[in-house]
Amino acid sequence: MKITILTLFPEFFDSFKSTSIIRKALEKGAVELECIDYRQYTLDKHNHVDDTPCGGGVGMLLMVQPIADCLKAVRQEDSHVILLTPQGKVFHQKMAHDYVQRYEHLILICGHYEGFDERIRDYVDEEVSIGDFVLTGGEIGAMTISDAIIRLLEGVITKESHEDDSFENGLLEYPQYTRPIEYDGKKVPEILLSGHHENIRKWRLKESLRKTYIRRPDLLEKRAFTKEEKQFLNEIIEENQKK
Predict the structure, then answer these.
(1) Which of 32, 126, 218, 223 is most exposed by smallest CB count within 10 Å?
(2) pLDDT tens for residues 88-97?
(3) Residues with catalytic annotation?
């Protein structure tokens, strides 16, 4: 897969590309990550990429020309162009999987300043947000989406390493523990030390349901529960009612 990031600050991604899993993915050739400064494409004699809003208003807006021309230069026949904006649909784990399965080339456009010329929307395939808040620019959002995608690519991390992650199966991840077995009077649950794999599986599923029920009940609203999950959830509800 190739990910192209259009940004005014390509240096923003230097540490991102040289650290941990992302660096390993690049070294393995699992992903190609390029950052392009779309200021290089402006036709403004002063090298500007922004201007004041028509009709008045505060701040500066990104002009359509530099971004449109930059897209013409980097866009391929199979490219999928994403504009990072608070007005886009909120990014989630299923979208990361969809991008991996459907596209060979993603282009992420990082906005900046007060906003952007509305006509830029005509040149993109999708608008995406990473949450209901506003950042200085789209760079952090681009890194967030890129990271979520890259870790799912074949050969980057083992499949088992992300299969039980939060949101992978629609639930939050179950509690995990490591040594020491006891610390400050707090012990690792005995069942995890039992060596009984089926009982451990059931415990993890129930605790995953418990965390989701308590912290993110919205994730359960449209879930198609298995018979086992229904039984565990009923037990969890009863246990909570007794507290």
Answers:
(1) 218
(2) 999 999 999 9
(3) 86, 114, 151, 165
